[in-house]
Amino acid sequence: MKQPAECETMADIRAEIDRLDAELVALFAQRVGYIDRAAEIKAQVGLPARINSRVEEVIANVRRHAEAQGLPPDKLEKLWRKLVEWSIEREESQLGRDD
Questions:
Q1: pTM of the prediction?
Q2: Which residue range or ranges hold the Chorismate mutase domain (predicted)?
Q3: What is the DSSP letter of 49?
Q4: Is 91 annotated to bind ligand?
Q5: Is 7 exposed, middle or buried (0-12, 13-18, 19+ CB in 10 A)?
Q6: For labelling, which of 36, 59, 66, 82 has a CA lying 20 to 30 Å from the CA of 74?
Q7: Domains within the chain, CATH numbers bracketed
Q8: Residue 47: strand, helix, or coil
Q9: Residue 37 annotated as binding?
Q10: In degrees rounded to 5, what are phi and psi of residue 3?
């Protein structure tokens, strides 16, 4: 693993971005495991896939983390809202409410 300042060529940069992308996909796969388990638990206790207060809590957390990392919170919020919507759609399909 090279730090950005250690990259001397575009090949170095591309290799690190590809490595990070693979790690991000692995993290998303872990997140999906929790989403799937949440759908199982929600089915058992009669909760809907979408719980608006939780959606907003997740977004607030992401905005806080973005700010702490020096990233634009508005941009990360837009990205995360897409991720959350995808997650809700996945839960809904598992709960038998897929349109």
A1: 0.87
A2: 4-95
A3: S
A4: yes
A5: middle
A6: 36
A7: 4-94 (1.20.59.10)
A8: coil
A9: no
A10: -75, 155
Which amino acid, residue 16? E
Task: Check the annotation: does 42 bind a ligand.
Answer: yes
Q: What is the pLDDT of residues 61-85, one digit of tens each?
A: 999 999 999 999 999 999 999 999 9
The residue whose two tokens read 């973005």 is 66
Token duo for residue 14? 């591309």
Say which residue the tokens 């058992």 belong to.
44
Grouped pLDDT means (10 residues each) for the chain, 99 residues? 96 98 98 97 96 98 98 98 98 78
Q: Residue 85 in contact with residue 93, Cβ under 8 Å?
A: no
Are 98 and 92 spatial neighbours (Cβ–Cβ below 8 Å)?
yes
Please tell me the distance from the alpha carbon of residue 96 to that of residue 99, in angstroms, as a whole number: 9
